Structure formats: C-alpha cells, structure tokens
Fold each of these.
Amino acid sequence: MKATAPREPATSPATPGPHGAPPAFDVEAVRAQIPALHQEVHGKPLVYLDSAATSLKPRCVIDAVERVYARDCANVHRGVHALSERATAAFEGARHKVRRLLGAADSREVVFTRGTTEAINLVAWSFLRPRLRAGDEVLVTELEHHANIVPWQLVCAEVGARVVPAPIDDRGVLDVAALGRLLGPRTKLVALAHTSNALGTVNPVAEVAALARAAGVPVLVDGAQAVPHGPVDVQALGCDFFAFSAHKVYGPTGVGVLWGKLAHLEAMGPWQGGGDMIRTVSFEGSTWNDPPHRFEAGTPNIAGVIGLGAAIDWLLGLDLAGARAHEQALLARATDALSRVPGLRIVGTAPGKASVVGFVLEGVHPHDLATILDHEGVAVRAGHHCAQPVMRRFGVPATARASFALYNTLDEVDALLRAIERARALFA
Ligand code: C6P
C-alpha cells in the first residue's frame, strides 16, 4: 500500500500474500498516519468506531491546513500578491482533485459548500424552488438523513408541494418498483442517499437514476456516506447533482461539495449574494458570475478546501481496492459477531451494505450502551442519527451505531464485542 506520510515514521511494507497473491491491505501503515488514533480514553486504548459521524484525519491533511495559516494565508481570487496567488492555486487545485475523485467531466461542475447539508439546500432553493408549483412532489426514500428531507419540505411549504417517501423493506432495502410507481408527472426531483448513515444500505442509485431519466425527472444523490467507501463516478451513476462532506472523507469539517451538471448550474440563479458571485454590481442591478463561483458568495473556507484536496490526494494514493476489501471484512466480522449476542438486534440487514452496523440491545438504552462502551474506550454513536423516519420505520427510538473506516482493525471489532459483553453483564 502506498500512502504519503510527510511527518510520520516509515512503516514496514505490506506482507506479501500467499502464493504471490497481492499483499493484504496494510492497515498499520495507514494507522501510523492518523494521530488521533493513538490515544487512551478512560485509561483504555481508543477504539474509534464513529467514522460515519466524522472520520479521523491523516497527518498530511492536518499539515495542509496548518500550511495555509502558517505560510499561504491570503484570500483567494482577490489578490495579485504572491500569498494570494499561492492560496488561489491550491484552492482551485482542490477543485480539480474533487473533479477527479468524482469522475466529473469538468471542474466548473464542482461547487464548494459548507457540507452535504448546504449543498442540498443550495439545490433546493436555486434549482428546485423556481420550478416547483402547487401539487408537485419531491420523491425521496424512507431511509434518508434529515439533510435530504427537511430542505425539500421547506421549499415545498412555500408553494404547496409535498415530499413523498419511497418505501424500504424490513431489511432496509429500497423498493425500487414502488419508487418507479411513485414517479409521475407531479415529480419534480428524485433525491436519495447513495448509502444510508443509519442502516448502511447502499441504494441502487444508477438504476433509480435511469428510471427517473426515463420519466424526465432530475436526480440528486446524497453521497455523504458513499464517498468514504467509494469509488464514486457521477457520470456512471447518471445523476444530476451529487453532494458530499469533506469531514467524512478524511478532510476538514465545515467544507463540502455540490457537483452538478454544468447545464443545470448555468441555468440556476444565485443562492446567496455577496463577493465573488457577481460579474457587475450597480444600484440599478447586478449580473452573475459563471458557475461554480456564482454559488460561492463571500470568502470561502480556504483552508478547509485545501485540506480536502490533501485528503483526496491521500485517499487516491492508497490501495483502494484493498481498503474496500478490508472495510468489508470489518463489517462481516462485526455483523457475524453481533448477530450471535443474545438480545441484540441489528437494525439494517440489507445485502451489500457499507461500513455501518446499527443495533439495539434488549433492556439497555442505546445512550446507556454508548456510555458504557465509551468507558471501555470504544466510541460509537447512539441516537436517531438524524434519520428519525428510519427509526420510526423500524419501531425503535434510537440505535447504537458502530461505523468503520479503512483505519480500523479486526481487533477493534473484537474490542467492541468485549465491551458489549461487559454492558450485558452490568444489566443482567
Ligand atoms: N451524518 C452521522 O453521524 P453534514 O452534516 O452536512 O456534513 O452531513 C449531513 C449528512 C447528510 N447525509 C447523510 C447520509 C449523512 O450521513 C450526513 C451526516 C452524520 O450519520 C452526522 S448526523
């Protein structure tokens, strides 16, 4: 496995596999590059199983952010001095890196936002709102994060339109046939998660996009939980918009991306007004800059965007196929072991899941469980995961959720199981 590690000590190369097979994914070499992994919590080694909430950051990302403030600290697109030119080059360089990460055709299709949430709100107000009439519908699914429900509700409320959920089954699998039946002349947009943060379900996005395309309906994909477990190719998916957050893909918080087809972005009016999004301003009226700058009013999160660029370089420098196989091995071990725990129910059992296991333990509230696990050094998230309709669908108020990243180990899965056994013993 190759990875750039500017400050970390060299680690031993991956062990060759048996019979000349490719070497196993070298998780220890990756872990050596993630400073936050190497700490104790409540006197126990940290076992970080909350990467769906936010991933831990490699040293090269931390360094890239620090470099902005320590050396290249300037505003972008505004100065002709050396610092500003350096900052602008790194900022726009990150846009090209995102284009490459997503397989997009053109860097002008990459808009920097505060995160997935802001990217979806941008589409809601700039793309959908002007096209929406009373009686229209936005088709989502039952497994969406609130970020892919509430923005649509807000714009729908303005005109008397409504949000319609396509059903999922008891495993958390989307009923594509039912979604197809709900697609109709009133549907103005299909908006669905690529991967569910609460269940781990990976939706058949390309299939849904083909259905929507046949009906002439644009598609937005919430890719927040998909990009960390990529690869993602927005052109192959056949969607119109794709949103993700840097902080879930080893980058900084407070920055994200909206990818949109250039024709859509060019046809969209601005969302927020301010510096950088205009071509001309006068008291008689103003004209707009071209995409993507039209949608990036004001000074952006410069260090965050450059940090995202560093995260993409880091990720694309890894053995990604090996990383995916490793993450699947973690998920398989956790799923298998958790299903054997008496009184434990896994919520979300779709085939082909990504790195998330949500569960409830009989007689123990998920928040209590998460607190006990924390005292064992094991970080999981408990709650509704900003997906209350999913919780309702499965008849639970909350779940505990273990989520894995490529830096987790099989031993950490075992540590989770030991901690759960301790919790069971406490509540026995
Ligand atoms: N899910 C989780 O613990 P932001 O907050 O804008 O970076 O991402 C919002 C978001 C949108 N869609 C999906 C599928 C998500 O998982 C998230 C964020 C985190 O599951 C925090 S609630």
Note: The CA atoms of residues 363 and 427 lie 7 Å apart.
Amino acid sequence: MTNWTELDQNVRSWIKEAGERIRHSFQTELNIKTKSNRNDLVTDMDEATEHYFTENIRQTYPDHQILGEEGYGDELNELSGITWIIDPIDGTMNFVHQQRNFAISIGIYDGSVGQLGYIYDVVHDELYFASKGKGAYMNDTKLPTLKSVSIADAVIALNALWVTENNRIDHTILAPLVRDVRGTRSYGSAAMEMAYVAAGRLDSYLTMRLAPWDFAAGKILIEEVGGVVSDLKGETLNPLNKSSVFVGKPGLHETILTKYLKVKK
Ligand code: 2AM
Ligand code: CA
C-alpha cells in the first residue's frame, strides 16, 4: 500500500531542493545544447534536475515507474502501478533567455488515474498542487472551483505560431477566436499555462503538440478545480502519448470546441 501522505512530503522536499539548485545555477554559466531543432534547448540543469528526481525516486520507491523528458526514466508501454511523469524544466527557452516563466512539473499516476500534480514556479517559489478529490492549492491558498466565462471576457493562452501558416493546424481556424476574446497571452511553458488556468489567471490554453511530461501535472490540477482537459478534438488525453492540448473553464471549453474548432458534439 502506498503511503500517499509520506509520498507527498517527499515530493515537496525534493521539489524545493531542486528549485534551490536551479536558482543557484543562475550564478553559474549554463551549458546549452539543442535537441530536435535549433530552438529545442536543453541545459545541464534540465539533465541534473531530472537525474536528481530519478535517483531519489528509485532509492525510495524502487517499484515505481518513471517517465521523464531527459531520458533518465523508463521506457513505458503502459501505465500500471505508480508512475511519475516528470518535466524537470518546462519552458527551457524561458529558463535560458529570461530566467523566469519556467516550472518543474510532476504528475503522479496510479494506473491511468492522476493522483497528485505539482507545478513549481521556481523563481516565484509558488507551488501549484492538486490531490485528486482533495482540492488544489497555490502554496497554502486553496484554489476555487472555476466558473464559466464568456468569449468576450476571456483571456486565453496560445502561441502566435498557430495563427501563421504551420503544419499542424489550418491557421485560419484560430484567427476568429483571437479576434473575439478579450486578450491572448503566450508564456512559453505549458505547465505554467495550465497552472494559470487552474488558478483562474487564464481562462483557456490551447496548443498543437505537447509531450506527456508537459501536461501530466496540469491535467490533474485543472480537473480538480472543475476545468476541462482534452485534445483539440475534445478527446481525452492519454498521459503516455504526445497530443494537442486544449484546456479551459467549463462552458468556455465547450463554446470554443463547438463554435471555433467546429467539433460536433
Ligand atoms: P519544454 O520547455 O519542456 O521543452 C513551449 O512551447 C512549450 O511546449 C513548453 O512547455 C515546451 O516544453 C513544450 N515543447 C517544446 N517543444 C516541444 C515538442 N517538440 N514537443 C512537445 N512539447 C514541446
Ligand atoms: Ca523540459
């Protein structure tokens, strides 16, 4: 049997320690490499942070599975038992260029059910946390249940790329949405954007392609406060697959899905 209280305490102390190490790294020179393309960055801190988490998890919970962006985890074919889905630094481009707007993201799944979600804004020392069925918090403040909002009053997050010609979506689809909402934002960290939706700072966030570690924790947080999490077609996300991601307040999610994305319900 898993002692969830003890596990939660461990995650919190590891996250705080990892955050401390990342903040400390601002004083030293980063080693920056590129991955799939010249804008896909990874630093020695991404790797060191994931390594730190995986070492601790393997030592304390040898029977748990780990899925991590930087490859220190396991090759997973299924979600069985307890799985940690980790992005050590979500928003690496921001980490490198801005030293802010990045987060540590950890989702802990029991089978396919998200149980604990943590998104830690390292620079502001803000921990967004949700425990399934037990509420969501920003540090010690409980996050209220999300209420619907109209399109005209909504602030939504999306990358400007999706309203220019691209190979993932017809760029004319989202232009009317951008015109009709109160405002758009783009923070460049999916985890943080999802934490902001959970906290009510954003009303919706949509993006064409994320990896499981980008959305695993955010999904748990948003669902815990009554928000809706799906892909761009309105389908459930599989935490083992890459996918488009579309999250939002209840009501608003449905309106965007049916009126703008033209998904038939
Ligand atoms: P990262 O910083 O951990 O790589 C920025 O657009 C957001 O999308 C970030 O959350 C970033 O996560 C993620 N991201 C960037 N490139 C990606 C890719 N090729 N596949 C999936 N997610 C990506
Ligand atoms: Ca990352």
Note: The longest strand covers residues 82-90.
